[in-house]
């Protein structure tokens, strides 16, 4: 084409040459004969415009414009329609071709163009203002692209435009007023852009408009009442977030008598009182969607006055009350959605009158009474029935079997009981059945296996018993089977492939036994297998891990034995492999490290003995591995050899967790671990590791979130090299080693994320680490069984442990008073809550040389060793709810402060083996969650407060022994379950379980004396005690004073006993007596001589 145009220009330059005029005329005639489209300049202009359009396309993945070349007439090019006689382009349709690029302004040269459609591409840039020249344009469809900027005001010149579709672009600014100057518009679609502002009142001036869509923008303000002037409007769409209008629907909406569809979902904030009754005037309305508008009150009866309704959606509001019988009077209704409201009462039986209904949604957060009415069986046209999570109860009516057109039945999360009716097998069109999270009992009916179209079956979280039906899935179409969390017994069916279409298989949480059938190894479509928490035994099928689409295998907590398959086919999709809590033994094969998508490997709690650690970069292909959990096996050998080889499989760019605790690894902690740049969690605890902690490992606190080295034989000091760049450490456990020296003060730098610090059972010698009191994130602090000393008075002020749940300072050398007087900041022990759902910490944005990674929350998985109820226990997932305070085996003194009664969430309190004095505070009875209380071996006095027995109703362990308590032991609630050992060593305690009974217990408690009779009344108890003492003393002492013979015999008898038991002592006493007697005689003689 370009060749012909160039030749024509050259000829025109020589046209004045008379000798060439004839040749010129002949040549032009030839050209026009060959290319008739060049018969006028305007055709040449169209050619250039079309080629310009092609050049503005940067990507044509379908080669849709390959026909646009000079070898053929442009009217034959794809997407182009020309006038049959004039050969002018009238239609340009390039829709749905995935074209990228921009829209050329040269389109303006296609002056006869009446229809321009480039919908469903990836065109971007601004809409060319030059399109305003296309005066003949009637249809402009630019929808589903990426056009941006504002709508050009020049397009108001398109007076003949009837259809303007700009749906799903990135246009911004106010809704364009230019469109209101297009008087002939019949179809205007501006939805799913970023238009803002309000709907202009000028939008009510069109005479012929039949379709208006401004949904899914960012519009606000009131809906203009002028919208009621669009009397020819048939479809109106104004809803979908983020549109959010002020006020309600204007009553003028009732003027739109021709309206057939009205959607205003998710854009209003209405009450039932503001529901426009004028909507009932829309007698031609067939579809009404007012869902997700926060509407309150009863379901509006005005909608029942629209006789032609076929589609009604009132879901996602706050309607209360009940579904009234009037909702059953529509003759043509095909779609009804009242789900996700607050409806109650019974489902009316009139619902069975909607015989044309095809889709019914009544569930999700509604709270009905009773069951499904049997009249539901009249809805023979019903295709979808959703009644999940709406408190339905009773049994499923057998009439449900009449719904022969039903394809989806969802009754999830209700309170249905009884057995599944066998009539459910009559649902010959059913593809999806969800009865999960109910209370169904009995066996799974065999008739379910007779459904010829069934593809998805969800029956989990019920009480089904018996075996899995052998006929299940015989139709060969079953793709999803959820039978989890029931009480199914027996073995798995021998053929579990169900026609080789099964993709998801969930049988976890049952009582299944026997082997995993070998047929699973032939299920080519299978992607997820969940069989954990059963009693399956035997070996794993050899071909199980060779399935090409397998992504997740969870077999934990069974009784599987044997070894891993030695080799496996290419399992390129496997992401999760969890076979923990079984009895797999032998070697972990090397093919596991060739799984490119493997993310989670959990083989903990097995009997594995060796690893194939001959790994190099050419043998490994894992690049997404996030967790290796091999703890609690029998793996052994030098840790340095293992970690050196694992360097090849530790991924880059995401946190990596490495758990090998409770094995038999020995040697020192290898420095090579410090090369694992993205190591996020490290657990080497409970092995046989020796040596010191590498300093570089502590320096990894800039990346490491969890480090557990407890239960080894590590020595030396803890390196004082925690980083503030920043310190991401959440959990540090060094418990049960032989570490010494001081606690590193650089731990104070970990003040943003540190949750658990456990250095118990070591040899650390230091004062209390007061610098930790400002770490507000701290939830566990364990310093027990070390050589910490001095007071902890620094906790008396400016302590910000708002999340602290466990404080264990036991078995150290702390002294002084109980320091804490203001407990108000210790929210973790004061506020009763469940922290299980507490979100994990987020990683704050940091430059960190571009190496900042998301920070996982490991605190819910931490294990803590505590002394609880007199025993050393390891608590797993301790941070979900557990709280404790242990100051035992120190030298604290003074009173136990009454403020400790504020710790209402405390589970265990141990203040034993100290020197506390005073009385037990009555406020301890307010610690209502307390299960273990130990105040033994102190110097407490007074009576046991009755408040303890009244308030501590969950107390299971109590030890008040070896104090100086007196009085009656409370005799109610948990105190009646404790033995004498809980109170021994308090000689003045009485009543059960002590052997001593309290005096006058049959009289009950005496009333307090009145003030008037206090001094005049006689205390007979006191008087009787005094008289008894005087009488007994007189009987014993009287004879010694007044009867000389008795006195001599008594003293002689005492002397004999002393001589037999303590002869040396007796001799010394006797010699002393003799010297005293001799001196007494000499003095008497001197006195006698002096008188003479």
Automatic annotation (TrEMBL):
Q: Which domain of life is it from?
A: Eukaryota
Q: Which controlled-vocabulary keywords does the entry list?
A: Cell membrane, Glycoprotein, Leucine-rich repeat, Membrane, Receptor, Repeat, Signal, Transmembrane, Transmembrane helix
Q: Where in the cell is it found?
A: Cell membrane; Membrane
Q: What InterPro entries would the database entry show? A: Leu-rich_rpt, Leu-rich_rpt_4, Leu-rich_rpt_typical-subtyp, LRR-RLK, LRR_dom_sf, LRR_N_plant-typ, LRR_R13L4/SHOC2-like
Q: Which residues form the Leucine-rich repeat-containing N-terminal plant-type domain?
A: 45-82
Which regions span the lipid bilayer? 1022-1043
Predominant location: membrane
Q: Where in the sequence is the signal peptide annotated?
A: none
**Gene Ontology annotations of biological process type:** post-embryonic development
Q: What PANTHER family does the record point to?
A: OS06G0179800 PROTEIN, RECEPTOR KINASE-LIKE PROTEIN XA21
This protein is called: Uncharacterized protein
Which species is the source of this protein?
Answer: Juglans regia
